[in-house]
Amino acid sequence: MKILLIGYGKMGQAIEAQAISRGHQVVGIIDPARPETQLSQFGPAEADVAIEFTHPDAAFENVKACLQQGLPVVCGSTGWLHHFSEARALAQEKGGALFYASNYSVGVNLFFHFNEYIAAKMHQFGGYDVQVREIHHVHKVDQPSGTALTVAEGIMRHYPEKKRWRNDPAQAPEELAIISERLAETVGTHVVTYTSPVDGLELKHEAYSREGFAHGAVLAAEWLPGHKGVFGMKDLLGL
Ligand SMILES: NC(=O)C1=CN([C@@H]2O[C@H](COP(=O)(O)OP(=O)(O)OC[C@H]3O[C@@H](n4cnc5c(N)ncnc54)[C@H](OP(=O)(O)O)[C@@H]3O)[C@@H](O)[C@H]2O)C=CC1
Ligand SMILES: O=C(O)C1=N[C@H](C(=O)O)C[C@H](O)C1
Q1: Which pLDDT tens digit goes with each residue over 153-197?
Q2: Which molecular function terms from Gene Ontology are attached (predicted)?
Q3: At what angle do helices 211-223 and 106-125 cross, to 10 degrees?
Q4: How far is the CA of 155 from the centre of ligand 1 (A)?
Q5: Ligand 1 touching residue 225 (CB < 6 A)
Q6: DSSP string of 97-128?
Q7: Does residue 76 contact residue 69 with C-beta atoms inside 8 Å?
Q8: Does residue 162's CB lie within 6 angstroms of at least one atom of ligand 2?
Q9: Domains of the chain listed by start with CATH number
């Protein structure tokens, strides 16, 4: 497959290694450090799919350009979802293909699945306070992490009394606390904790490297061409 990489930082480089190891060809790299190559030079004749991991402020423009240029796009950038309904509408209008996941790791997507199951059970039995904690490297620009937001949405689906999340340990009864920590080069750790006066229960995912994210993004890129619409890891993994 011919893959266009948009963003060549920590993730772009990890994805390039995965893509090559799976027999794909990287036909272009779009990044501010390589101004000689522009996204406008690429369409379906040049690339089968684009993989976008850049920055919260850049992602929507890149996704829009891919959809307008007829390129199926796998996007992993976080912090831009306030534009997601516009991206969805454009994918529909253009008959294009957009794949989005706040986290491409298969392990994290199992974590999302178990998170919802546990939230439903804990709410049914009651008596526990719930909170979400995410720990990432100090270079991360968005807070809370996209993954923590997906986890929080999964919990809130089963806790109707939790009306919104709050990025602070101090939570009102109608709020779900998401605690963010930035620590050295931590790749990405997410923990859901339930606490009662007599015991505690934790669900934790810890990424040891970026390989799992990159592997999932390449799996999505292999799956997406030929599909039309907006997709996520549930479609890919059948979860
Ligand atoms: N969904 C998932 O599974 C995962 C998502 N992420 C998300 O992916 C994004 C990137 O993460 P990461 O690779 O660690 O970040 P990095 O900062 O290491 O890399 C981002 C790269 O994108 C470049 N860039 C910035 N703007 C543009 C643009 N308009 N077009 C093309 N390239 C651009 C940056 O250049 P410059 O430095 O010059 O600005 C940089 O080289 C983040 O939003 C992160 O949260 C990360 C890991 C997993
Ligand atoms: O910025 C990162 O590094 C990561 N970002 C994603 C997020 O915001 O959830 C996924 C992963 O945790 C790493």
Answers
A1: 999 999 999 999 999 988 899 999 999 999 999 999 999 999 999
A2: 4-hydroxy-tetrahydrodipicolinate reductase
A3: 100
A4: 28
A5: no
A6: EEEE-S---HHHHHHHHHHHHHHHHHHHH---
A7: no
A8: no
A9: 2-104+211-237 (3.40.50.720), 106-207 (3.30.360.10)
